[in-house]
Amino acid sequence: MFRLLIILLFTLGCSTYISAQSVNIYVGANLNKEIDAMYSYQYSSVNEAVEKAYSLRKQDPELDLKIFVGQGQYNLDRPILLNSQLNGLSIQAVKGEQVSISGAKPLPLKWKKEKQGRYVASVKGLPKFDQLIINGKLQTLARYPNYSEDAKYWNGTAEDAISPERIATWKHPEGAIFHAMHGGKWGGFHYRITGVDDNGEAILEGGKQNNRPSRPHKEIRFVENVFEELDAAGEWFVDQQKEKIYYMPAADLDLKNAACEGVVLKNLISIRGTEAKKAKDITVKGIKFQFTKRTIFEPYEQLLRSDWSIYRGGALFLSQAENCQISDCEFTDLGGNVIFISGYNRNHKITGNHIHDCGASAVSFVGESKAVRSPSFTYREFETLDEMDHTWGPKSEDYPSDCVVDDNLIYRIGRLEKQTAGVQIAMAMNITVRHNSIYQVPRAGINVGDGTWGGHVLEYNDVFDTVLETGDHGSFNSWGRDRFWHPNRGKMNELVKAQPLMPYWDAVNTTVIRNNRFRCDHGWDIDLDDGSSNYHIYNNLCLNGGLKLREGFRRVVENNVIINNSLHPHVWFEHSRDIFRRNIVQDSYKDVGMAGWGDEMDYNFFPFEESLMKSQVYGIDAHSAYGNPDFIDPSKMDYNVRQGSKALSIGFVNFDMDAFGVQKPSLKAIAKTPEVPQPKKLAGKANDSRAVEWLRATIKSVDSPEEQSAYGLNSDEGVIVLKIGAHSPLTKSGIKNRDVILEAEDTKVADLKNFFSLLKEHQGQQQIKVKIMRNQQVENHTISLR
């Protein structure tokens, strides 16, 4: 009876406070006259509940506080800030109830029909919003070309998006928003149009969203926020001067009775401590977060010398915090980054979340540059060795460390921004990314932006359908343009020769990539780009794009299965200390500009003899083998090998093929899996010899009367140059596609095996003399082997 009296007094707004060990606060969209005895207070808004929590903690700092949010949608009037005063607080949905927290605000629009099916309403006195929601669904800001779900880039692009001819049809070009892909498709750019010059060209402002400057892509571009482009169902436009909104509804939409909202907040919850008082032990659980503003014109920050610039913010933002947990939540229709962990953070857990259909990155760990010793910020920027700090590791603690991203389902992120990732890591240490399913993304699924400071563990993830709108990237991507890295390769060689341990000044801890499944159809499955160093990569299943190792140090790659592809070693250092062993590959190595082959390249399993012989020409893979690996069940993506497989003879060990991706039952039930690879044809005909890549060119044996006739040969002998890749030494040597190599060093070439045997005899030479057949004419050439 006494407890019920206390509850009643607080419900009526009594300010009297009676101490208790634990207090539960209930939030309900529709307040109840009677509340459950477990709740001490009830409010109709989350903000009010948080304010009450602050008030209670001010009176009793040791009070155990929980906020339970009941069924309904809660439109925030301002972001929720949780600081150290609320340490230990949990905000969670009432079990079994659907709870949504939104950054949108209801719009009391009174629509009037205009011509051509268009409607208009006044927005006078309403807050400014950057996205329109009708009946819970985001609508399309008036754009050209019109939105198409089937379009590859940005749901529709056009070369003439801001052509003078098109701009001439707009009364007010100023205020239009122009989007374009990077010239090399390394992300995207976003601009405001501020006017038109004397030539009718758009005057652009912006384009700071990528750390590798380029001109806007000439073809992959679109424009929005133009009144004259409002011509398709679902499109809208606000005339700020007239204070009117225009909308083109679908034919079956009852607009007068529709619920209209505008997105007004860019952040929903911030967990922020200070250097002196960390925010600790705060939990957010079981809530759906929806609708935040786009952040493409917020200040962007360069992330060292990676290709990234980023807005340091998100729908959920954590800074100066420890031991916080975000679990079992759904995040959708968010305009920018989803979860952003900034600067000093320790021991957070992001688990069991469903993240989809958002504008930028899903989960980002980004330290502060003041924690980096001698930081450089652009590709061409560097400090001299004399100027540089030579101390190992971080300079301060202003970075995320020892955090876990586990068992999350992430897809269709980067809907607006293209330099994005499912999980982004930069200037951080010891981040674990485990059992996540990540797919349908425009760039990398998981990206590590630099070597500072390593120690990450990436395991049991399922990452596929990546690099869908960009290029030159991988399902996993990393950069390592750390203190040792220099844009001039010769200078970099000098640096690491003088300071052999320099690559580990920043990459102080080994990053482990193990037991993952990757598939990239538009790049590499695993892409360790410029300078990436100190990695251990093992027990991974790569389904399509292969594994790339550009220049770097101490990458140990072992016991991986690479389907339909191979290792792509690019411009290694002479003493890289790299190791590639006990891997199953299904093609010859795709080497480019190699100065050395690391500490060990051996005990690997190739598909056929010629692919192995090509490696042995370089003096590597002496103990490797070739043949059919005898996979257990490729149709079900079980690429373990059967007992008795020749792959076991080189030391390959089977690993778990059933544990990839999200494991939470409710998420696993809806998660997709990658497409089963179709066996790659390694030759043009059933009786053809296998094609092999050599010096960035594809070559094969002449092995049929048909080919003898086609190339005008005296016999069915020789080696055909099928295709010469970019920057191949063969081009500089005057060799062309469809040339046939007849002799090497004055010795007749019978076939590919014979050719590689001859090359092995002349191993170490800088060049070889060859005799070729071209257009039924014999010619002599000298081929550079470097």
From TrEMBL:
<feature type="domain" description="Right handed beta helix">
    <location>
        <begin position="313"/>
        <end position="451"/>
    </location>
</feature>
<dbReference type="Pfam" id="PF13229">
    <property type="entry name" value="Beta_helix"/>
</dbReference>
<dbReference type="InterPro" id="IPR006626">
    <property type="entry name" value="PbH1"/>
</dbReference>
<protein>
    <submittedName>
        <fullName>Peptide-binding protein</fullName>
    </submittedName>
</protein>
<dbReference type="InterPro" id="IPR036034">
    <property type="entry name" value="PDZ_sf"/>
</dbReference>
<feature type="signal peptide">
    <location>
        <begin position="1"/>
        <end position="20"/>
    </location>
</feature>
<dbReference type="InterPro" id="IPR011050">
    <property type="entry name" value="Pectin_lyase_fold/virulence"/>
</dbReference>
<feature type="domain" description="PDZ">
    <location>
        <begin position="715"/>
        <end position="785"/>
    </location>
</feature>
<keyword id="KW-0732">Signal</keyword>
<dbReference type="Pfam" id="PF13180">
    <property type="entry name" value="PDZ_2"/>
</dbReference>
<dbReference type="InterPro" id="IPR001478">
    <property type="entry name" value="PDZ"/>
</dbReference>
<dbReference type="InterPro" id="IPR012334">
    <property type="entry name" value="Pectin_lyas_fold"/>
</dbReference>
<dbReference type="InterPro" id="IPR039448">
    <property type="entry name" value="Beta_helix"/>
</dbReference>
<keyword id="KW-0614">Plasmid</keyword>
